[in-house]
Automatic annotation (TrEMBL):
Protein family per UniProt: Belongs to the NMT family.
GO molecular-function terms, A-Z: glycylpeptide N-tetradecanoyltransferase activity
Boundaries of every Glycylpeptide N-tetradecanoyltransferase C-terminal domain copy: 232-447
Catalyzed chemical reaction(s): N-terminal glycyl-[protein] + tetradecanoyl-CoA = N-tetradecanoylglycyl-[protein] + CoA + H(+)
Protein name per its UniProtKB record: Glycylpeptide N-tetradecanoyltransferase
Region (Disordered): 50-69
Keywords for this protein: Acyltransferase, Cytoplasm, Transferase
Transmembrane helix in keyword set: no
Organism for this UniProt entry: Lachancea thermotolerans (strain ATCC 56472 / CBS 6340 / NRRL Y-8284)
Keyword Transmembrane helix recorded: no
Subcellular location: Cytoplasm
Top EC class, one word: transferase
Length: 449
């Protein structure tokens, strides 16, 4: 099928959006950014400057109290009103996914769209301890149409050795017609107010854009599972000196998985897998510390969104791996309606547990071998679930397998930010030239949706 360069560009743009960035993300790559003073909003917030030398890690402003936080939101223009989106009400949940499906994508004719589902939001916005009033919306006063949204969910983080009671901010979205009107700062202030009222003063958030100041920067990587389809819809081009047959052969995965004992995670495995993950995560500097209920919710509560597997050997679980699904709708294509996309989520392995030093060469080699086989197997699982591309970031220990398993580096970067918390830079799995760093790897162990 002929390549339409416009369409190819759109899909590339769309894949950039996977980093939940906006179009400008492509221009604001890591070396480029505004001067701190030019961030009119962010310079007023408790966030580090780009040039801050961090000696003591911890909260920036720790003198606040919930009773001193205003009881009312900031006023909006008279055409708009604040709302709490009750996502237990199917109509209101629908409002959220219509807003996101139609406005996360920037191309004007909306040829491609994220295909968020009800189930995806139920999974991601309702972890244990979720609060209705942390699903913040703006509606038009007359038609009550939802035109902006931002969410917070509770999370306990570990930042190096310190536990930080926190929230994760996600799904910030403003209707395309209301862009560049400085609504973002008002939304952020409102969600901050509602979170502060609960005596929580820190937040974790990610963005493709550079803001003051990233705690870590990771890069997306994409592993084609169905190369012909990605080629036909224009996602990927044909390299000058390769044929289609060669490309298909390059990305063809084995028919069957290779790891003996790999099977779906079950309820009965939870305690063991929870301990395995906790031990594995201890190597990283930025992680979410789950309660067992949170862990259960994330890995077992939604069978059509998240897929979790374990490797059992001699009645012992040695490895665990999970990925989630967030497809695109492909509009106006005669052959394809949807692009299936899998995202690597949490995993753990005991392969290097005998080595106290994470960078021990023998231990690293064992882990690399184990992960190569495990991740290759989940790519096979994802392919069998009709996913067309598998995404991972340069975080966790992923740089050990990304190149070997033919994950191509993406254009998108994802910056991790901590609100009201000073932290020394955390490794994002990238070398200076932004290639995947298989030696140092990453110290980011949290996976943001
Ligand atoms: C991201 C989005 C909400 C920004 O809206 P906008 O209309 O361009 O920006 P506004 O005029 O409302 O606000 C501008 C301010 O918000 C900041 N901002 C922009 N994107 C931001 C983000 N993702 N996170 C935090 N702050 C952001 C800008 O830096 C600017 O502040 P500054 O003056 O301190 O630099 C909007 O582009 C959108 O909905 N995009 C699609 C979804 C998306 O990418 N969401 C981001 C998820 S991380």
């Amino acid at each position: 099928m002929a390549q339409d360069p416009d369409q190819a560009k759109k899909l590339q743009e769309l894949l950039k959006m996977l980093s939940l960035s906006q179009n400008d993300a492509s221009k604001l790559t890591q070396p480029q950014r505004k001067q701190f003073e030019e961030y009119k909003f962010w310079k007023t917030q408790p966030v580090p400057r780009f040039d801050d030398e961090v000696e003591d890690e911890g909260p920036i402003n720790s003198s606040q109290r919930p009773e001193n936080i205003p009881n009312e939101p900031l006023p909006l223009l008279s055409e708009f009103e604040w709302c709490t989106v009750d996502i237990t009400d199917p109509h209101q949940l629908e409002d959220v996914f219509v807003l996101l499906n139609e406005n996360y994508v920037e191309d004007q004719d909306a040829t491609f769209r994220f295909n968020y589902s009800r189930e995806f939001f139920n999974w991601s916005l309702k972890p244990p301890g979720w609060r209705k009033d942390w699903h913040v919306g703006v509606r038009t006063r007359q038609s009550k149409r939802l035109v902006a949204f931002i969410s917070a969910v509770p999370a306990t983080l570990r930042v190096r050795t310190k536990l930080v009671k926190s929230v994760e901010i996600n799904f910030l979205c403003i209707h395309k017609k209301l862009r560049s009107k400085r609504l973002t700062p008002i939304l952020i202030k409102e969600v901050t107010r509602r979170v502060n009222k609960q005596d929580i003063w820190q937040a974790l958030y990610t963005a493709g854009v550079v803001l003051p100041s990233p705690a870590a920067t990771c890069r997306y990587a994409h592993r084609p599972l169905n190369w012909s389809k990605l080629y036909e819809v224009g996602f990927t081009g044909l390299p000058a000196n390769a044929s289609k047959t060669q490309m298909i052969a390059k990305y063809t995965l084995p028919k069957e998985i290779d790891t003996p004992g790999l099977r779906p995670l079950e309820e009965k495995d939870l305690d063991e897998v929870y301990d395995l993950l906790e031990k594995y995560q201890s190597r990283f500097d930025l992680v979410q510390v789950f309660t067992k209920e949170e862990f259960r919710h994330l890995l077992l509560s939604s069978t059509s969104v998240v897929y979790s597997y374990v490797v059992e050997s001699n009645n012992k679980i040695t490895d665990f791996v999970s990925f989630y699904s967030l497809p695109f709708t492909v509009l106006n294509n005669p052959h394809y309606k949807e692009l299936g996309i899998g995202y690597l989520f949490y995993y753990a392995s005991d392969a290097d547990f005998d080595y106290s030093d994470r960078y021990d060469s023998e231990g690293s080699l064992k882990l690399k071998k184990r992960l190569n086989r495990l991740i290759s197997d989940v790519c096979i699982k994802a392919r069998d679930l009709k996913m067309d591309v598998f995404n991972a970031m340069s975080c966790q220990d992923n740089s050990l397998f990304l190149d070997d398993l033919k994950f191509g580096p993406g254009d998108g970067f994802l910056n991790f930010y901590l609100f009201n918390y000073r932290v020394r830079p955390i490794l994002g799995g990238l070398r200076k030239d932004n290639s995947f760093d298989a030696e140092k790897r990453s110290n980011v162990g949290v996976v943001m949706l």
